Structures are given as C-alpha cells and as structure tokens.
Amino acid sequence: MNDITDPPSPFAQHLGYELVAWREDYARYEMPIRPFLENRQGIPHGGAIATLLDSTMGLCGLWSGDAAERRMGLTLSLNVQYIGQAKGTKLICEARKTGGGRTTFFAEGEITDDTGQLVAKGTGVFRHRRS
Q: Which PANTHER family match (predicted)?
C-alpha cells in the first residue's frame, strides 16, 4: 500500500505539508516554512507545529499494508513540547507508533528543521475510526 500518491486533504494542501514516507508504525511529513505559517516573531507558529505533529503521529499507526483497506483515525490526546526555533527552510516531522491495541494506539513524534535543529517533540493517543 502506498497512499503517498493519494491527494492530500485540503487542509494539508493549504499548509503545504507533504507525506514523504509511510510504512508500518512510521510516517514522515515535510512542510516548507512559508511566511503565512509564521507568528509575529517570524518563526513557525506553534499551531502549525502542533498540526504537523498531530498529522504525522496520527498517520503512523494507520498503515495496513493493503491498498484496499484504508484506515482512518481520530486524535484523543495530543501533547507538544516546544524545544527550539526553526532556522531552516522546512520542518521535518517523523513519528513512530509506540503501542496500543485494536482500537487505540500511542505515538511519539519529533520535528526538526532541514538544518537539524530540534524544534518540538510530541506524544499522542489515537483511535481507529470505524468506516
């Protein structure tokens, strides 16, 4: 299964983040830092960072390995720790599923910029959504 070729959601298109890797228990999104994502200090807004973590962590637990089985999920809890300021031109978020069961899973994620600067970390709890 390779949903990387699926069209992104309108929200993802608006923010400009793209899925670049997805496999069992892992996902990676990248988002160019554009002026409309910046806060008054000229750095990426915390809400944009939280959104990127939420999307990446939520997706990392939805891999099925079967193109006919498209899984969906919902965020139950999201925790974000803002660590540093982005200095590069894009944000890179990698997330891994850390546990869970049939209906709920746990994930952790990390955002760096393209210079390697650690920007944020997060954890979340997600639920598989019934179709």
A: ACYL-COENZYME A THIOESTERASE 13, THIOESTERASE SUPERFAMILY MEMBER-RELATED
Cα dist from 60 to 69, 92, 112, whole Å: 15, 14, 17
The domain ranges of the chain are 3-129
Question: pLDDT tens digit string along 5-25?
Answer: 566 788 999 999 999 999 999
Q: What contacts 124, CB < 8 A, 6 or more positions away? A: 53, 54, 57, 58, 75, 76, 77, 78, 79, 106, 107, 108, 109
> Residue 54 in contact with residue 114, Cβ under 8 Å?
no
Contact between residue 71 and residue 128 where contact means Cβ atoms under 8 Å apart: yes
Q: What is the pTM of this model?
A: 0.92
What CA–CA distance (Å, rounded) separates 130 from 37? 33
